[in-house]
Every structure is written in structure tokens, then in C-alpha cells.
Amino acid sequence: MDFTRADALNTAIRTIAIRHRALAASMLAELGLHPGHEVVLLALDAHGPQTQKQLAAEAGCEPPSITVMVRKLETAGLVERVAAADDARARVVSLTGQGRELIEPLRRVWVRLAEETVEGFDEDAVRELLGGLELLAGGLRARGRLRL
Amino acid sequence: MDFTRADALNTAIRTIAIRHRALAASMLAELGLHPGHEVVLLALDAHGPQTQKQLAAEAGCEPPSITVMVRKLETAGLVERVAAADDARARVVSLTGQGRELIEPLRRVWVRLAEETVEGFDEDAVRELLGGLELLAGGLRARGRLRL
DNA sequence: GAGTAAAGATTATCCGGATAACTGTTCTCC
DNA sequence: GGAGAACAGTTATCCGGATAATCTTTACTC
Hints:
The structure is a homodimer of 148-residue chains.
Chain A: H1 3-28, H2 37-47, E1 50-51, H3 52-59, H4 63-75, E2 79-83, E3 91-95, H5 97-117, H6 123-142
Antiparallel strand pairs in A: 1-3, 2-3
Helix pairs in contact in A: 1-5, 2-5, 3-4
Chain A binds a DNA duplex (30 and 30 nucleotides) through helix 1 and helix 4.
């Protein structure tokens, strides 16, 4: 690949990353959340109570990041941690009632974010783009240097 | 847009953002750089000495981020800042000889990163994907809440 | 069963990047 | 030409996310 093309690709990804996150941040702020928290909450909603290790895998980030986020969500009253019955090392995280109440608004924000992200794209373009993004994500995930 | 689709889109973008950055970080580390620095160096190489405001615009991030990165690049000896001749507020940043020497290896790393990112994609798929990413980036840039 | 390896979680410390607040300079307009 | 708005930059402080190291508990192996 020539440099111009490579730069265009890397720059586009960087720009999308920064802007999508900024947009997410401004929308999530309405719910008192920071970007990253939504992933944890949605994962808990989708797959029920689970350990932080599982959460890390689902959220696509490292355990220490989960520890911190979960602690903040816990002090915010959205989540609770209890020691796992069968393993004293593990802690099972689950949504509190207050956390569950936040899920519906959160889902709406999540949809609005996606819609704004692809605003101006027609149906086919979105489908094509989504396909490409998922391939890209899959490829990067596979050859990532990360532990997960 | 339904939730499933929205989630797929948001998650893919988040995953790509994290992984691409992680991949970049591991490659840039070979040159002693952190992600973000390369954007500044490449901008200086592409468009010559410029103020930090211009750098912020080119790098797609906020002035305070540029201040810190430029200071680190300066202490690393890759960049130097001189007061602008016509404006005592502004500081013009330029590459040092040592910084210029890093450009070629950096460009190679940048190309390698892009190649690894789209590994497995054929020529047409890359072109299509790049087009979609640039549209996405443009749209997000346009409706961003950021100052730039 | 004892001793070592592996795993879950946490802490500390680094980084980029954001906003808010502040400093100092330039511009504008009366 | 003097007052106030606008602007370049910096600092302080927040956040997510990463790695490395540590602690505790479980699992494996002899």
C-alpha cells in the first residue's frame, strides 16, 4: 500500500474513533454516564450477571479498566458486586433496580448515536459499511496484541 | 434503526478504535513514540512548520492535547518551538534534524499499520471500505460538538 | 496432602484526550 | 488611542484504557 492511501485509512479511523467517542460522550452525559460505562451496562442487560473477567471480554477492554468502571457504576448505585458462590476470587456483577431503569433510556441513546453516526447514508450504504466495519473489527481483534 | 443494528455499528466502531490504537501503539513503540505523536510529526512533515492551533486542526484534537504532546516531542528532541515573528501569542512548531530523521521510519510504520489493519481485504474491498470510512469521518466531523 | 502454577481481581502508574479556567496578546471599534 | 472582545497557549483536573506488579484463591501435579 502506498503512503497516501495508508495515511488516509489510518487518519479516517482515528477521526472516526475520536468523533464517535465525543458524540457518545455528549449523549451519555444526559444519563450521567461516561463512554465505556454503557458497554458494561448493556452487557449486563444482554447476558445477565457475570464476572468482571467476562465483562472485560465482552467490553473488549482489559480487566483493570473494568475494575475501575464497575466500582464507579457501583458507587453510582447502578450495579452491585457480590462474591461468586463457587469461587472466592471472582465477583459477580449485576444490575441494580436503578441500573435496570437506566437500560431503556440508554438503549434509546445508543440507537440515536448510531443514527447520527451514519446520518446521510442510505439503507444500502449503511449495510455495506456495517459489513466492512465488522470485518475490520474482526480482523483487528484476531491479530491484536491484547490479552483477551 | 433498530437496537441490534445500532449496537452492532457502535460496537464495531468502538472495537476498531481500541484495536487500531493498540496496534498503532505497539508499532510506534519501536520508534519510541506514543499514539498521537505520529500525527503531529507527519503533519509537520507534510505541511511544514506551523502553529499549535493549526496542528490541533490537522491532528483533529484539542489545543491542550497538542500543548502536552508538543512539549513531550520537544523534550525528546524531535521538535522545536519558536515564537512566531508576527504574533507574540503564537508559537511555531517545526521538526528538528532528529525529528526529520524519524519521518521515514515513521512513514513505513504508518503503512505497515494500515496494511495490517486491512489484512485479508482485497483491493476492491479496501477501496470501498476506505470510501465508507472517509464519508463516516466527514459526517462525524461535521456534526461534532468539538470546537475545531 | 504439599507445593507450585494459574487465574480473578485490584492497585499504581503511565498515556492520550476532553473541558474549564487563566494568562497574555492582538484586534476591533468607538 | 483606549476599552473590551477575540484569540493562542497553558495549566489543572477529569475520564477511559493500557501495562506491570501484587494479593488471594483455586487448580494441577507429584
